[in-house]
Each structure stands twice: as structure tokens, then as C-alpha cells.
Write a structure and sequence with these properties.
The protein is α/β, with parallel strands linked by helices. The protein has helices at residues 2-11, 15-37, 39-48, 52-100, 104-109, 112-154, 156-203, 205-210, 214-266, 272-313, 372-377, 402-406, 423-427, 436-445, 449-454, 472-486, 502-516, 551-557, 560-567, 573-576, and strands at 332-339, 349-356, 361-365, 387-392, 395-396, 409-413, 490-494, 520-524, 536-541, 544-549.
Length: 577
């Protein structure tokens, strides 16, 4: 009942369709009862009384009833399938919308494959189940009631015998349904693992091939797929056991009724027409009763998927502020800022105090894992400080609306994010209303215009998933063009040139110089050579700012920065930078 109530809540917004389907279902149920009722006049009137008029009327009446049943079955079935499809579509839209507003930290804890599985597989499971399970619930419940009414009207004592087996049948079906729910949840978890593995395998296909690991990868996939297959078998066994149980219980009832009712006919207590009309009703009851048991199994499977979907929907979204941040005119301040990831005992950042003036280029260096990227991620509120606050022109960004805050920030990172779309749409991503001349101007400033024109369709060329049809330098220049077009007052460069060859780096560096002009810029870099022109350089170590100054000032101090600078030209550089 709890599962049914939850599913009924899902379909509540579509009550008009449900009402129409319900009316059609009642008509179908009434027709089923009418067919059972007509067995008596057909048998007694035609075969015993040899009524020639009935011989003509009854076949026509039955033909009309079957035709009407077919029409109304089509109506209710179509409406329920359409409702199931609409529920699934709306749920998928709602879940995706919810995912878009979850904190960035959520995507570090849950894999892309697992999230994809919930959006596609778990919700997909609901479509057929809602369509068939709810349809059967509507149609077969009414049919059982109507047919039992016919049976009681024909012979109440026989009907009581038939009814006594139904509670046992439904109780057994319910128990099987509970087990099926648990198995279905495991099956959805297994398909989630498969989706995750597929995502990783396709993303890393070059690495798989270069190391010759195709056979191992296929073997692991086969093992995971086999695990899923075993859960499907368990699910199939439970569903078939439900059917077997219903067949056995139904057989017991029919056998006893046939014996007892046959005696009544032989002794003349009832006519053959009475008995066969009753028997037709009972035979017709057991079929919808079995379907109701199957509907229960379908609802339990749907509940397993709904629970997994709810785990996502119950996650708290990003906390948006109400203060609209105007374009920055002055400084950015970090005051006593500390940060630690949930579930991690130590803090990544500790007591950061920092003031950045408008137009300043601030470079952040340090060993891997000291918190450079985490520090910058606090600015667009990908994370909120554990303690302390960050201010833009004296406005605490924890109170800022995310749209107005992030609208002032542009990011160019080592991991370039491009979409399987045209060059134009990728550049235009941050400003969908930008004019063509503005797009071209941004591409020229990023030194991307020339190579774009060489593409098969120029700005209308589709670049493939993650820009796979472009070189690393070309992808980076598109990313820079996108940032130039957005024209943000604050710019974050996160390892923007670290993965490029020397020639590409020189071109990208020129593009970055155009981009940084008249902007407050944060530069995260492993290469000391990329931060020498910064207004100020910060050195982070163990979550704290331990040195601050220009390149020349820090070299003169002979501290960690100088050591990092010297190691830049040794084989040990990679260990420290």
C-alpha cells in the first residue's frame, strides 16, 4: 500500500488522463462481467431450450461486446502508457535539473557512470512498469469485483469457496513482491556499475589501446555483466514463482469448485447454465488476479528504482544568496578563511588572509596537494569556507546570488571543457546572445580565427566530444576565446598551459596576455616560468600562505619559492611542482 500511494502521487498531476483511463477500465470490467453473465442464457436458451432467436441474438451480442471491449481496452491502455511516458519524461527533466544545481563536491563523490545510470536506467525502468502495472491495477481490480459479483449472483456458496483462496494467493504474491524489490534494487546497482565502467572505458580508450589492455578490459566487463545477469535471473525466478504460486492456488480452487458444482448439477440443484456461467466468471477472475499479482511485482520493481532516484533528489542543492553583486570595482578579500572537505579530518586551507586589488595578477604556487585549486574554487563558491569569509567590494559572497557572482568570473583550465557542438556555440557558451562579429573578434584575440577558418565548415564545424577533433592548443584557444567573449572582470587561469608543447604554449600565452588585460587575474601554475610576470606571487604550503611577493623579491628571500625555482630545472621538479 505504501508503494502504491507513492506511485499514485507520481501520477496525480495527470489525473485527467487517469480519470479517462479509469472510466474506460470500468467499462472493460463491466463488459467482462457481461460476457460471464451471458453464459447462462446462451447454454440454457440455445442448447437446452433450443431457442432459435437466441441463436441469432447471442453471437451478435457477444461480437459487439468483444468489439467494445477491444476499443475501450485500447483507450485505457494508450492513456496509461502515455501517462507512464509523461511521468518518466518529467521525472528525468526534474532529476537532471536537480543535478545541475547540486554542489560541485557531489560530483567528486559520485562517478559520472553512476549518475548516468540513475538518470537513464533507473528512470527508464519506471516507464513500462508504470504503464503496465498501473493499467492492470485499474482494469483488473474492477474486473475482479464485477466477476465476483456475477459469481455471487449465480451461486453464493460456490463463490465463497472461490474467494477463500484469493487472500492466500495475494499474501503469497505480496511476499514474493517484497523480495523482488530487494533483487531489483541490486540489479539497478549492477547496471549502474556497468554504466560507470563503460563511461571510463570509452573515455580512456587511447590508454587502453596503447597499453594493450583490451582483453583485460573486456574480461572485466564480462564479469560485471555476468553479475547483472545473475540478478536478472533472480528477478525472473521470483516473477515466475509468483505466477506458479498463483496457478497452483487457482488450480486448487477450480478443482474443488468443479467437484462441488458438478454434484449440484447432477442432483438437479442448479442448471448447467447456472454452473457454467458461474464457472466462466471464476475462470475469468483468476486471470486478472494473476495480473494483479504481476502488477504488485511491477510496483515493487518501480519502488526499487524510485528509492535510488530519491537518494539524488534528497541531496541538498547549492545555497543561493539574495544579494546581487554589481561589477567589481575594488578589491577581493579573504578574511580568516579555512576549509576542510566533509569527512576529512584535516583542513586543506588554514587561516587565509589575503587582499587582491582590482587589475592585479596574483599567481599561486606550491607543491601538489597544498590547496591551490581549492583556494580559487572558493571564489565562485564551488565550496564555502568552513570558517571565515570572502568579500567582493565589501559584499560577503556567501550572501551573493550565484548568478551575479559567477557571471563576473571566467575560467581557463588545463582540463578544457568543450561540447560536442559547433565552434561557434562553444565560443558563445558564456554569452548566448553574442553577435557574430563579437564571436569572431574573441576568436581573433585568442589566436583561434585562422585555424577555425581551416576547419571543414569554419565556425559551423562540429568539434566532437570534448573537442576531440582539435589539437590541445586549439582546444585551449577556443576556451580562451570563450572567456574573452564573456568578458569577466575576474579571471582564473588554472594550469592553462601546462599540458601544451612549446610552440602551442607560446601562442596560447599570447592569447592569455590579451585575455588578462585589465582584469583581476588568479594564476595557478606548476611552471615558475608562467608566473614571473605576476604582480604578486603567493607560495602555499600545508594550507597556509608562507611567502608573498614579486618574483625578484621571493628569489632574494631564498625561501621555498627559490627552491622551487631552482628545482624547475632539475629532474626533481615534478616532485615539488
Amino acid at each position: 500500500m505504501k508503494a502504491l500511494i507513492r506511485i499514485l502521487k507520481l501520477i496525480k498531476p495527470y489525473w485527467r488522463r487517469i480519470v479517462l483511463a479509469g472510466i474506460a477500465s470500468l467499462i472493460v470490467s463491466g463488459i467482462n462481467g457481461g460476457l460471464a453473465y451471458l453464459v447462462k442464457p446462451a447454454l440454457d436458451g440455445i442448447f437446452l431450450e433450443k431457442n432459435k432467436t437466441l441463436l441469432i441474438i447471442m453471437p451478435v451480442a457477444i461480437l459487439i461486446l468483444y468489439l467494445l471491449r477491444g476499443v475501450f481496452s485500447f483507450v485505457q491502455s494508450y492513456l496509461m502508457r502515455a501517462t507512464g511516458a509523461k511521468v518518466v519524461t518529467d521525472m528525468r527533466n526534474r532529476l537532471f535539473g536537480h543535478l545541475m544545481y547540486l554542489p560541485v563536491g557531489h560530483y567528486k563523490k559520485e562517478s559520472t557512470g553512476s549518475i548516468l545510470s540513475r538518470v537513464i536506467n533507473d528512470i527508464g525502468v519506471l516507464q513500462e512498469l508504470l504503464a503496465y502495472a498501473i493499467r492492470d491495477l485499474f482494469v483488473e481490480s474492477g474486473t475482479v469485483i464485477v466477476l465476483l459479483s456475477v459469481a455471487f449472483y449465480r451461486r453464493w456458496d460456490l463463490a465463497l469457496i472461490a474467494v477463500t483462496v484469493l487472500p492466500a494467493a495475494f499474501y503469497g504474491a505480496g511476499r514474493f513482491g517484497e523480495r523482488l524489490k530487494r533483487v531489483s534494487r541490486k540489479a539497478q546497482q549492477k547496471i549502474s556499475v556497468i554504466t560507470e565502467y563503460l563511461t571510463e572505458s570509452f573515455r580512456g580508450i587511447k590508454m587502453i589501446k596503447v597499453f594493450g589492455r583490451e582483453e583485460d578490459i573486456v574480461k572485466k566487463f564480462t564479469e560485471k555483466n555476468q553479475d547483472f545477469y545473475r540478478e536478472l535471473l533472480r528477478s525472473a525466478r521470483l516473477m515466475e514463482f509468483t505466477s506458479l504460486f498463483m496457478e497452483f492456488v487457482g488450480g486448487l480452487g477450480i478443482a474443488f469448485i468443479l467437484w462441488y458444482g458438478g454434484r449440484l448439477v447432477i442432483t438437479g440443484a442448479i442448471t448447467p447454465g447456472d454452473f457454467f456461467s458461474f464457472l466462466a466468471a471464476i475462470f475469468m477472475v483468476y486471470t486478472p488476479a494473476k495480473r494483479l499479482a504481476s502488477a504488485n511485482n511491477g510496483i515493487q520493481r518501480a519502488m526499487a528504482s524510485l528509492e535510488r532516484i530519491s537518494e539524488i533528489e534528497n541531496k541538498e542543492q547549492e545555497k543561493d544568496g539574495s544579494v546581487k553583486v554589481p561589477p567589481i570595482k575594488g578589491k577581493i578579500e579573504f578574511k580568516n578563511v579555512s576549509f576542510g572537505y566533509p569527512g576529512v579530518s584535516h583542513e586543506v586551507l588554514k587561516d587565509i588572509n589575503l587582499t587582491i586589488q582590482k587589475g592585479e595578477i596574483l599567481a599561486i604556487v606550491g607543491k601538489s596537494g597544498v590547496g591551490k585549486t581549492t583556494l580559487i574554487d572558493l571564489l565562485p563558491r564551488f565550496h564555502d569556507p568552513s570558517t571565515g569569509a570572502i568579500y567582493l567590494d565589501s559584499i560577503d559572497i556567501s550572501n551573493a546570488s550565484l548568478e551575479s557572482l559567477r557571471g563576473q568570473i571566467g575560467v581557463v583550465s588545463q582540463d578544457v571543457i568543450l561540447f560536442n557542438d559547433t565552434v561557434r556555440n562553444n565560443i558563445q557558451f558564456g554569452r548566448p546572445d553574442a553577435r557574430e562579429e563579437e564571436i569572431v573578434s574573441a576568436a581573433k584575440a585568442a589566436f583561434a580565427h585562422e585555424f577555425i577558418l581551416e576547419l571543414p565548415h569554419g565556425y559551423d564545424s562540429v568539434i566532437g566530444e570534448s573537442g576531440v577533433r582539435l589539437s590541445g592548443g586549439q582546444r585551449q584557444r577556443l576556451s580562451i576565446a570563450r572567456a574573452i567573449l564573456k568578458n569577466p572582470p575576474i579571471l582564473i587561469l588554472d594550469e592553462a598551459t601546462s599540458s601544451l608543447d612549446t610552440e602551442s604554449e607560446m601562442i596560447v600565452q599570447k592569447a592569455l596576455e590579451n585575455l588578462m588585460e585589465n582584469r583581476t587575474t588568479f594564476v595557478i601554475a606548476h611552471r615558475i616560468s608562467t608566473v614571473r610576470r605576476a604582480t604578486r606571487i603567493l607560495v602555499l604550503d600545508q594550507g597556509r600562505i608562507i611567502e608573498s611577493g614579486t618574483h625578484e623579491e621571493l628569489i632574494a628571500k631564498s625561501g621555498i619559492y627559490k627552491k622551487l625555482y631552482e628545482l624547475q630545472f632539475t629532474d626533481q621538479a615534478a616532485e615539488f611542482l
